Task: structure prediction
Amino acid sequence: MPQESLPLLHLSPDDISRRVLVVGDPARARKAATLLSDSVQVGNNREYVTFTGRFEGQRITVVSHGIGSAGAGLAFEELARGGARVLIRVGTCGAVADGIADGSSIIATGAVRDEGLTPRLIPLGYPALAHHQVITGLVNAAAGIKTSDSSKTADTSKAADSVKTPCRTGVILTSDLFYPSKALGQDWSVWKASRVVAVEMEAATLFVIAALHGLKAGAILTVDGNPTLAVQDMSAYDPHRNVVAEGVEQALRIALHALVKINPE
Result:
């Protein structure tokens, strides 16, 4: 039975669809809501902004979860308790593998648990894996299959979606560290040698919490730089570029097309 009230999301289970799109940035949640029809803001508390509407006739909820595993884990846990069954994260990431262009999409198959929350939930030997149905749904949606889009968009003349930038799959790294310290720095050699493709801050937490609740979860991420090539203090990092914004919008559309195809049971 769903929990009767969700205090941190400030929602009731009736506000939540079984299919949920989760994003870090509240502004990205608002952007995603414009891709839905009949979207209504149903929650707004702290970093957690929630909309529910429809995409291709299916009820979809969009929730922002903020930055980092601890705060995001609160959102994922309450969504699970509120009746969510399929969750897809759309976010940004830094490329770790060489040769991945900014704006590209990464579909995570699993995540390295280099964050602080999930070891308090389950031992580190437990894997953080995306659900196979979600991986398949995202891959199919990203394959460039054009689908009729009757949902409202900023450009109402757009009748179909198509993938414009590359998309690849692989294991990602979820880490609490964004700005490295001068004392310890950041050594990328292990992750590059182990073929980790990208780094972000919340997916492993989503995968573990979803698995513990028996839910289906996955993630599609837009590359906004390569920290392995950046200067130590990340001072040149700039996620506010058109190539990134276009990649994020593409990832939102891919995720929505995947969500409506996945059986929430």
About this structure: The chain has one domain: 13-261. Residues 146-160 have pLDDT under 50 and may be disordered. The longest strand covers residues 86-95.
